[in-house]
Amino acid sequence: MEKFIERPRRIAFQILADQYGNVVSLGERECSIQRRHQKLLEESPSTQVSLELRDQIGQMLCRTLSEIGYVNAGTIEFLMDEDRKLYFIEMNTRIQVEHPVTEMVTDVDLVKSQILLAAGERMEDVLHGPILHRGHAIECRINAEHPEKFTPSAGKITTFNPPGGTGVRIDTAAYAEGVIPPYYDSLIAKLIVRGKDRTEAVSRMARALEMFIIEGIYTTIPLHRRILADADFRSGRVDTTFIERFLAKSSKAEPVSV
User: Fold this and answer.
1) Which of 66, 82, 201, 257 could form a disulfide with 136 if both were Cys (CB 3.0 to 4.6 A apart)?
2) Contacts 24+ apart (CB under 8 A), 94-98
3) What are the pLDDT digits (tens) for 162-187?
4) Residue 134 annotated among the catalytic residues of the structure
5) How far apart, in whole angstroms, are the C-alpha atoms of residue 93 and residue 180?
6) Contact (Cβ atoms closer than 8 angstroms) between residue 243 and residue 33
7) pTM value?
8) DSSP E strand stretches across 18-135
9) One of 84, 94, 122, 237 is an active-site residue; which one?
C-alpha cells in the first residue's frame, strides 16, 4: 500500500558531490507539467518551496548523500502534497534533461562540474564559492509532435529560426534541412529563459516561443504558447494533473494554429 496524493507537485532537488564527502544542494526544480508522466515544462525555483523548506531539504540531502558516499551529480525527486509535505520518489544518478533551469538560476555549469568531480576535483575548486540563486528560469521541451494529437512528426525541417536575446538560451542539434527520423525520442530542442522573477520569465518565454519558427514538421511550440497563456499556469496553480485539465478545457476552444 502507498499513500495517495490527489494532486501532487513534482519537485526535484539538484545536488553535486565530490570524492571527499562534500555535498552541496543547488535548490529545486518544479516539474509538475507532464503528459503521460513525460515532463513538458520545468521551472526553478518552485512557487511552493519556501526558503526555509529549501534549506531544510537541502541540508538533509547533503548529510544523507555524504554518509552513503555518493559522488558526482544527481537529482532527488519528490511528490509534494497540498500541505507542502514532500514524499521521496527516486534518485536519478545523472544529469537530467531539465538541468539548464538550475544552471540559469545558479550560474553553475552542471556538466562541467560533473566532469571535474569525476576527475577528482574538490568541491571548493569546482564551485569557487557558495551557491546563489538569481531570478527565475523556465524550460520548454520542444518535441517533434502534433500539438493537439501528440502523434510523432518525422520529416525534413525546412525552416529553423531559434529565438535569441537577453536571458534566452536554446539547446538543440536541429537545423534547417535537417531530417527528424521516426525512431527516437521526439525531443528536438530545449528553450530556456531567465527573468528577474517568475512574471518576467513567463513573459520572456512567451515572446521566445512566438519568435521560434520551425517549419516542415509539427512541433509542440503552439502547445507551450497556450500553456504560457493559461491563467492557472500564470498564477502558479499547477500539479501533475494540470495537462489533463488544460487539454479538456482547451478542447472546447478554437483549434490551435500550427
Assistant:
1) 201
2) 96/12, 97/39, 97/141, 97/187, 97/190, 98/12, 98/29, 98/31, 98/39, 98/42, 98/139
3) 999 999 999 999 999 999 999 999 99
4) no
5) 29
6) yes
7) 0.93
8) 23-35, 38-44, 72-80, 86-92
9) 94
